[in-house]
Amino acid sequence: MPSLTSTFSSADEFSPLQPILPNLSTLEEMSVLIARIAELNRAKSVEPSIASSAEVFGQDEYGSDGDEFIPDGEDGQKKEKRETQTNEANSDQFSEMKNDKMNLLEMFIQFEKKQKQGKEHLNLRQNFWDANVCHEKLEIIGEKKLTVQKGNFNGWSSIFAKHSILLNNNSTDIFYYEISVKNKIGFMSFGFAVKQQSKLEEIIRYGNGTYVYESAGGIYINGEGIGRNDKYSYGVGDTVGIGVNLSTRQISFTKNGLRLDCLFVDQHFADYSFSFYPFVSIYSFGDKIEANFGPNFKFDLAIL
Fold first, then answer.
1. What is the pLDDT of residues 74-118, one digit of tens each?
2. Phi, psi for 201 (deg, rounded to 5)
3. InterPro entries per the record (predicted)?
4. Is the pTM of this model over 0.70?
5. Helix, strand, coil: what percent of the chain each, to 5?
């Protein structure tokens, strides 16, 4: 049995689905900067308008007719000093706005660079469901062969993708895919498993080399139920995914673009002599899913 390091929140101690923290943090910082820049722009535009309205009525900011009251012993130097301070404040405000814009630009550059790096390490072979490794009660729909629907039969039926995960580190560092649930009455599950040791008329989740995410919220690793959480369950309208980073051996599960609060590190993942294939198992008549093998996903691969 491969050694696993895992974290899993039980139903009693569940914390919400974890957002993509690095990217979410970056986006939040960018949002704050954008709001700050907008506020500075508004402040800059408001000041002239106030001055203009005062000029219309022939008054200055003190409400007089333009002649500022200057106490005995004071002269125009005070007014000049105040104008200098105002100009310096405006200059500082402009400098602050310029720095914020530069920081925002740098964040966008780093954000795009990170996304690009994630896709560069992705296995981009065009994948699809394999009609030759498909239960007879499952129908593959569409020219791209990405949609699968259950026929007139209640009972487990499974199907595998055409191409496997490439397990040598020279070919790819990341493998990830998603399914979107189009119709669901009963149970379903998906993940990756060893095609050669799986039966199409059974639910795929037992035995070594199975990494499974079930619709009821259960996670199975190498045939063992690691845990189940209702918050992880999925149905119609949800998009769920599974991925592995072969360089770190980290296995992740996602739901609607967010990574679940459970991570697994299988140190022997790439040591198996057999290949893993994406699969889906469907139980109920009429249930339907659509796969997405990339390269654009709801989940951001930059942190996988």
1. 566 666 767 676 666 666 666 766 676 676 666 655 555 554 554
2. -90, 10
3. B30.2/SPRY (IPR001870), B30.2/SPRY_sf (IPR043136), ConA-like_dom_sf (IPR013320), Gid1/RanBPM/SPLA_SPRY (IPR044736), SPRY_dom (IPR003877)
4. no
5. 30, 30, 40
